[in-house]
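Researcher: Go.
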Amino acid sequence: MFDIGMTEMLVVGMLALVVVGPKELPKLLRTIGGLVRRARELTADFREGVESLAAEAEREMDPFEDLRKSEGILPGMSPEEITDHILGNREREAQLGDEDVAKMPDADEALGDKKPKKKAVSKKTQSAKSDKAPTDSTAKPPEPKS
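Model: Structure:
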């Protein structure tokens, strides 16, 4: 990495022995070793953090997530298996017809991924909505009486 050979290490060692002295040299080497170890740990933590962020961004940016859920595609399926699965879904839909397809459970429910059900609208709410006249964006508002 730094391209330091054995002769350079020997020169640095001799210089450290002269400058620091033989009594303090082991303490200095332990301190330097601890600093190098801590730098490696920080580098490893940083690398793991960047890799986890990249993996999270990749999971969030999956453009086919909706297709996977709606078609019931499982992780680990090969492209050929996915194609066969989707074509099989289309064949089943064609054979069953529109009424039976509406009765079929969602792919998410079939896989056990329960989504919250939509709330049923009460009859009072439906009648209140039907009492209101539909708004027409092209209709002119009533003219004020003068």
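Model: Residues 6-60 form one domain.
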